[in-house]
Design brief:
It is a single chain. The chain is α/β, with parallel strands linked by helices and about 325 residues long. It has one domain: UDP-N-acetylmuramoyl-L-alanine:D-glutamate ligase (3-Layer(aba) Sandwich). Helices cover about 35% and strands about 20% of the residues. It contains 11 helices and 13 strands. A 9-stranded mixed sheet has the order 5-4-1-8-9-10-11-12-13, sandwiched between helices. β11 (about 230-235) and β12 (about 240-245) form a beta hairpin. The protein starts with a helix and ends in an 8-residue tail after the last helix.
């Protein structure tokens, strides 16, 4: 536990994952099929988390592949706009393309369409991760999507091994996206392996349930991981808050209710808020709540990376909000 928190407190993260482009109809509330205007933004879970960390005062470097075209350059430019280190963002040519997410700024009848065929980020290989100086960072963060296909899967596990050898703790956002995987059976096996190699695991009830073979078994799976291999396991329960397992303790935290504009981006913003709060000296309970506040802010605005708060926005939200819900 001490090594995990010490690594996070360096507030300098190497993130292995994907960057993509988001499209969302404008104005908010518009159905995609009725839209005449769209806005664009940085997308991809790893890229969003990296942007969120930088907006909150941390440092983040992304390791990924992007398409060698205008869309790939857009994603790289957006990463730089948020202050993310792009030294290990490498273009790949041919027919590989950056992922595209088209989603709506509405909750009722929300629609999201993801384009991931021939995804450029899945071309990341072991040479890409071998070029990283892991000792320069405090912790390695990765998300489940990076493990969905080869050669990205093998590269991600190689990055974990290299980071571990350099003394870095491993942080894992389960981030299960069924559309990226060849089968649920492969996903269950690979994500469970990644979780077993991680010091901190963050996922929702469905994701832990998936790894356990049934949603009703998810909580027991999270508890077992905390008792055997991980130092901190955070089991998110949506509107019911989260249960965190750490040092034999169960920490129950609520959420900050808001009127949500859309459901996307909450998990990435939670992770950014959690990690930077620990780095800023908050204890684990307070850090989880700050992560929850970041998620609440993000679902209330269009876009994902653009909607994530900076430190001033987060502090203002916490000062004005009546407080998190209580949990049983």
């Amino acid at each position: 536990m001490t090594a995990l928190l010490d690594g996070i407190r360096r507030n300098d993260f190497v993130i292995v994952g994907r960057a993509g482009m988001d499209f969302f109809p404008h104005p908010p509330g518009t159905r995609t099929e009725d839209a005449t205007e769209f806005r664009s933004a940085l997308g991809g879970s790893a890229a969003n988390t990296a942007a969120g960390i930088c907006k909150l005062g941390g440092r983040a470097a992304l390791v990924t592949r992007v398409s060698d075209d205008s869309i790939g350059r857009y994603c790289t430019n957006q990463l730089r706009h948020y202050g993310v280190d792009t030294a290990h963002v490498t273009p790949v040519g041919g027919e590989y393309r950056n992922s595209l997410a088209v989603y709506e700024s509405r909750v009722a009848e929300h629609q999201t369409v993801i384009y991931r065929n021939g995804a450029a980020d899945f071309r990341m290989d072991e040479d890409d991760v071998a070029r990283v100086d892991y000792a320069a960072y405090g912790a390695l963060l990765t998300a489940g999507t990076v493990f969905a296909a080869e050669p990205s899967r093998g590269a991600a596990f190689a990055a974990i091994a290299r980071a571990r050898a350099a003394g870095l703790p491993i942080l894992f956002d389960v981030d299960y996206r069924p559309y990226s995987w060849p089968s649920p059976q492969v996903a269950e096996e690979v994500l469970s392996r990644a979780a077993a190699e991680s010091d901190m695991i963050v996922g929702n009830d469905e994701e832990f349930g998936f790894m356990a073979g049934g949603i009703e078994k998810g909580l027991a799976k999270a508890r077992h991981l905390a008792e055997t291999t991980a130092s901190v396991v955070i089991y998110k329960r949506g509107e019911h808050g989260a249960i965190t397992f750490a040092d034999g303790e169960e920490i129950r935290t609520g959420i900050y209710p808001v009127e949500a504009l859309k459901p996307t981006g909450a998990g990435d913003s939670f992770m950014a808020g959690l990690l930077t709060a620990i780095a800023d000296g908050h204890d684990l309970r307070a850090a989880i709540l700050r992560g929850s506040a970041c998620a609440a802010i993000t679902v209330g605005k269009p876009g994902c990376a653009p909607a994530m708060p900076d430190r001033a926005t987060l502090d203002a939200f916490l000062a004005d909000h009546p407080g998190p819900t209580t949990t049983g």
